[in-house]
Amino acid sequence: MDKGILENLYHVAIAVNNLSAVEEVYTTALGLRVEHREVVEDQKVKTSMLVPKDGGTAIELLEPTSEDSPISKFLEKRGEGIHHICYKVDDIESVLAKLKEQGVRLIDETPRLGAYNSRVAFIHPKAMNGVLVELAELKKD
After folding, report:
1. What's the rounded Cα separation, in Å, for the pair 12 and 14?
2. Total number of domains in the chain
3. For the segment 112-125, what is each residue's pLDDT rounded down to a tens digit?
C-alpha cells in the first residue's frame, strides 16, 4: 500500500510563555521525558522536545527568545496552544516539488535548517484548513 508522501506524525508543537514551567507539567503529569533542548537563533525560539518513554509522537514546546519572534507574534494573537503539527519526510525537496506541482500553497519552497539538525519547510495554513504543517527531514545517520 502506498503510504503517500509523509512518513508519520513526528510532533505536535505548542507555543508557550515559559518553557521550563510547561516542561515540568508535561514531564510530571504526562510522564514524558525531555529528549532535547535547543535554541534556534534563526527562528528566535527556544525548543524542548518531549517524548513518551516508549517512543511515539513527541510534543515540541516553543518559547520565543525575542519580541520579534514568530512565536511571540503567535502568542500575542492567539495565546498559548497548538502552533503546528509536523510530519517526517524522507526527501523534503521531492515532497515540496510534488506539493508545488499540485498547487499547494507553501510558506517555504526550499528547506531551511530547523531544530534538532533537521531540514524543514512549512505548508501555509490556508492550504491545510487553518493548520500550520511543518515537514521535517531528519538528519540521516
Report:
1. 7
2. 1
3. 998 888 999 999 99
